[in-house]
Write a structure and sequence with these properties.
alpha+beta, 2 domains, six-stranded mixed sheet, 6 helices, four-stranded mixed sheet
Length: 272
Amino acid sequence: MPRMLDVSEDVRAEIGDDEADRLLAGENAPGSYDCTSCRTPGDPEQERTSTVLFVGDETAVLAFAHATCIPSQVVRVSEEQLQGAVRSITGQEPQPPAPAPAPAPASARVPSDTRQAVLGVTSGLVLIEGDLHPALVVEPTAPITRPGSYGTEDEFLPLLIEQGFLPVSGLNAKPPVLAGWSVLLAVGQLHAILQPGTAGGQPVAWWQAHQPLQVTDGWRTAANKSHTVLVFAAPVGSIGQQPREDLLRDALEKAAANGSLVAAAMPLAGTS
């Protein structure tokens, strides 16, 4: 039976025509695999399968995923993240169990004038229109000033609105999809929030975890079901680290009522 492999043009360009053709012919393709997104078994002889190439500073790793989870694509990550993914894929290092339903935080540095600002990212499930939706909440640990500005005014939300995020007044409806942005969930963990590259190039990381963020099984299941993640953002001090998802929702609703919340929906590991 022929193998149902998808090899995107970006992946082909990275690995070369000969290797791509060998994959499509079944010479180097796996007989079975654990999906690099949802971590459940897959079989390229029974279901459409995506080839996903993780490229670091010095290393490249080819992984496989259900095509219904993520499309075939090239994912550029730090060498440290790639080595962690290799350990997870090969089983050389056990992964910690998913946490309890309480949201999980992570952080990364983003440019802010001449200093580095830290963004905290919290994952959780948010109930909207009767359904649970996977969500990420982004909150800086300090005011974000406009790059190149010498002022002290926090312009985190205006900067995001310029990128296409929309102000929200409540959690009664899902925000619209923000074109070109996506959330990268790989090897069952959260790696990055991607934004469009310049001049139509490859997406680049707007936020990237120092270490891949473990999410709950419920969050990952909801994300793979909807293929969409809701991303909320608020200025420093608006949300805080909430120990439970109900408290996280309360904090989001208060921020929205105060006009301090923007949001966007993003495809899961999309490549716009």
